[in-house]
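Hi R.,

Here's the chain you asked about this morning:
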Amino acid sequence: MNTVTNLFYVLSNALLIPVMILLLVSLARVLVQCGRTLQEFIARNRERAARRQLEQSALQNRSLPESQPSDGPLGRSLSRLVAASDNIPGLAYALSQIELEWQMSLDRIRGLVKLGPSLGLMGTLIPLGPALVGLAVGDIQTMSNNLVIAFSTTVLGLFIGMVAGWLSTVKKHWYQADSALLNLLAERMSSSQGQELSSTVLQEQAALTEDQFAQESAHA
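And here is the predicted structure, written out as tokens:
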């Protein structure tokens, strides 16, 4: 029994350094995501006026305005829709690919929401063993050092999870608004394409009817 207990004790202590390294990596990742979110926020503010024009044009079933957003996230997504607007399946595929990229971006942040507190909890529990051992033998210095590590990793893990959760909520709202607008624009594009297709079919039918009438007149 003592052998198994000592083995678990050694293995848990061996995980402390990897946990602390992963916490630092997670902190770097969440700070990078903060910078990217700030950059996206600035880009979205720049295309806010063009976005309102797009919404009005789509709701009133008018043609797209000439001043379309081009540099921001919405502008890039809209460019992909316009490039695929010549056929309805391509339009649906482009829209699904855009939504898939949004989901992948959110999943990267949501992973940090769970990973940060989990690593913080591990960093809290692992040093408690040596701290209790130090308390048992009267080594207050060892106990205090391990408690400092435990509390520091807890705070860092909670900070990572809190910031990542806030970023995930903000981006989710952005992508939901973009999804609603792009779906509306895709419907307008597909309906206009269907109208053009039906008018083309009617013109071809009218031309065939005229040819048949001309041939019957010639035979008569």
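One quick note: The CA atoms of residues 117 and 174 lie 25 Å apart.

Cheers,
M.
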